[in-house]
């Protein structure tokens, strides 16, 4: 049993029954349930990350958190799955030529490692935003998110990735945030979501959502601090290497006022 569930049970029981419950856990008959050593985080820490790569994803929504998590992967075991519809390179290019009026060829591609149909086991799904969030053609992404969400330990959205998750219905009833520059159009995608502003990021149980693009980097650092053994030291060391000043207060969000987003939730 996970240590968090044990704590939860403790709160519900009287002190005496909680003690008996703890003793029953240390009895050899249920030896497998004993949490390892003094470490309360490592046995629960998510190890398998999937990044969704919809057409016209925002580059930094993916590579910001990926850079931070890769630093973590040098300190603890992590696995990465890059997910898309097919194994063809996933492009940041606009879906329609009309969205590329200067005919630029400035769109990198990323090679996926799994298709949605492969449905590899993952603990965390990271959904980036970008022009992707406004694509009229997100059917396979939405189907995959709906299918995988119940199996996840955590869902993380970056920027307008919250709009994609909202379209899949998985943010319904959750507190969540998104890019304040795209607030009206993204929040309209999830009328049942408790949209939070101001917020650099919002944690609500298994659902973590960030504000615009670079906020995903601060979310990733906070996630490491909370979910991994020695996470604070790892996050601070990695931030030093990146020369990134972490925003540590989730309410620290000047963009909310800048884009006239009303205070909510
Ligand atoms: C757009 O650019 C490509 C090269 O990147 C070129 O082949 C094509 O003719 C251009 N289209 C227009 C309408 O200018
Ligand atoms: C914690 O992480 C820091 C930064 O990566 C590292 O220097 C230190 O050795 C780690 N401590 C433990 C106990 O793992």
UniProtKB/TrEMBL annotation:
Protein name: Class I glutamine amidotransferase-like protein
First and last residue of the signal peptide: 1-31
UniProt cross-references to SUPFAM superfamilies, sorted A to Z: Class I glutamine amidotransferase-like
Entries under CDD domains matching the protein: GATase1_PfpI_2 (cd03139)
Pfam family, one: DJ-1_PfpI
Keyword ATP-binding: no
Location of the DJ-1/PfpI domain: 52-226
Listed InterPro entries: Class_I_gatase-like, DJ-1/PfpI, INH-QAR
Record key words, sorted: Glutamine amidotransferase, Signal
């Amino acid at each position: 049993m996970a240590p968090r569930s044990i704590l939860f049970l403790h709160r519900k029981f009287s002190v005496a029954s909680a003690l008996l419950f703890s003793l029953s856990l240390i009895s050899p008959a249920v030896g497998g349930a004993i949490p390892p050593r003094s470490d309360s985080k490592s046995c629960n820490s998510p190890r398998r990350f999937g990044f969704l790569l919809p057409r016209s994803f925002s580059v930094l929504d993916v590579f910001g958190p990926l850079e931070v998590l890769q630093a973590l992967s040098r300190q603890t075991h992590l696995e990465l799955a890059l997910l898309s519809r097919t194994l063809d390179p996933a492009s940041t290019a606009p879906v329609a030529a009309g969205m590329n009026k200067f005919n630029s060829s400035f769109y990198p591609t990323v090679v996926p490692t799994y298709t949605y149909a492969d449905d590899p086991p993952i603990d965390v799904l990271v959904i980036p935003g970008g022009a992707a969030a406004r694509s009229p053609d997100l059917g396979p992404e939405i189907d995959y998110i709906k299918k995988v969400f119940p199996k996840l330990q955590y869902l993380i959205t970056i920027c307008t990735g919250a709009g994609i998750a909202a379209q899949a219905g998985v943010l319904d009833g959750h507190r969540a945030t998104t890019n304040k520059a795209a607030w009206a159009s993204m929040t309209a995608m999830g009328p049942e979501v408790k949209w939070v502003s101001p917020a650099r990021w919002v944690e609500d149980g298994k659902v973590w959502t960030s504000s615009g693009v670079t906020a995903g980097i601060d979310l990733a650092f906070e996630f490491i601090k909370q979910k991994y053994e020695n996470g604070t030291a790892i996050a601070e060391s990695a931030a030093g290497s990146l020369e990134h000043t972490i925003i540590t207060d989730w309410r620290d969000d000047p963009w909310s006022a800048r884009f006239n987003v009303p205070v909510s939730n």
